[in-house]
Amino acid sequence: MRVWIFFLFCLAGKTLAAPTEEEPVVEEELEVGANPVQVETGEFDEAIEVVEDVIAENLSAVCIMPSVAMQERDCDNVCRLYRNPCLNHHCKKGKVCEVDDSNQPMCVCQDPLTCPAPVGDFEHVCGTDNKTYESSCHFFATKCSLEGTKKGHKLHLDYIGPCKHIAACMDNELNEFPLRMRDWLKNVLVTLYERDEDNNLLTEKQKLRVKKIYENEKRLGAGDHSLDLLALDFEKNYNMYIFPVHWQFGQLDQHPVDGFLSHTELAPLRAPLIPMEHCTTSFFEQCDADQDKYIALEEWANCFGIKEQDIDKDLVI
Ligand SMILES: *[C@@H]1O[C@H](CO)[C@@H](O)[C@H](O)[C@H]1NC(C)=O
Ligand SMILES: *[C@@H]1O[C@H](CO)[C@@H](O)[C@H](O)[C@H]1NC(C)=O
Ligand SMILES: [Ca+2]
Ligand SMILES: [Ca+2]
């Protein structure tokens, strides 16, 4: 039980939208003037001549700050030519950018040896192959090197921490799991709401919905509640649980937003939980009722006891 409270505080600080395994990284435009750190003078030897005509002896300075002597557009043209194409090019986890013969950026598998050495055991991760990897960087680099193979396709990050023996989940324990998780989801939302003054962790619409839960005097506060009490509260205050269950689904369903959770999308929730809650894997397996490896909104809601007539796609956004 304590685990859930601990976990609540770990997650409440972040929004639950931690980056996941195969998430396509959004391309950020590096605007001229935006990011001084990324421009290295060494890359621009060839450019010096061109730029000297135009302005200063320091190309990086030119590329960082369009100077008065140079129209912004000219600067852009010069810099586009000589800027390292990789500066603007993001690769998914496990890959790094390299420039090919025609100066085009491309993503190639990272050599695990170039991953930063882990600071401690807590950086280790366990793969679905039940092998411990030194860090998630090592894991994704390895997964990348297996790209295109069946083994690579099946390999996922299972949980945070070194691989360990995870006790089998008994049926009665499995039944308790959604009770606690549902209660926890509600508390995560309430905590986010309390902290949300100016963080904008929740949208206005979401805030309105949580406000109702927050202000409801009958709400069961966060704490160590018996399973009987949790079950009773769900019966009595069923309506308070509908939104938190939908909300969590929306937090996870991001890559892509399609009403289904893949293994990868589920990872931010699963990975930290598995070492502490041995029923996590069984729960999500069981949740995928049609066993197509994706958890649909209907399946998800059903796992948490939300009635079919209360499943509402509009609550997810
Ligand atoms: C070029 O400009 C950058 C940023 O203003 C500065 O950090 C760097 O020292 C300069 N390099 C030279 C060779 O002047
Ligand atoms: C996975 O590895 C751990 C540690 O090496 C071991 O204790 C555990 O029994 C293994 N689990 C399975 C399912 O093989
Ligand atoms: Ca999805
Ligand atoms: Ca399914």
Helix content: 40-55%
Distance between the ends: 30 Å
Q: How is the biggest beta sheet arranged?
A: 3 strands, antiparallel
What value does the Rg take, in angstroms? 24 Å
CATH fold name of the largest domain? Recoverin, domain 1
Report the bound ligands by name, code or SMILES.
2-acetamido-2-deoxy-beta-D-glucopyranose, calcium ion
SS summary, helix count: 13
Helix and strand content put the structural class at mainly alpha
- Strand residues, percent: 5-15%
Look at the structure and name the CATH superfamily of the largest domain: EF-hand
Mean pLDDT: 79
CATH class bucket of the largest domain: Mainly Alpha
What is the total tally of β strands? 7
Number of domains: 3
Signal peptide: 1-17
Family: Belongs to the SPARC family.
Main location: secreted
Pfam families: FOLN, Kazal_2, SPARC_Ca_bdg
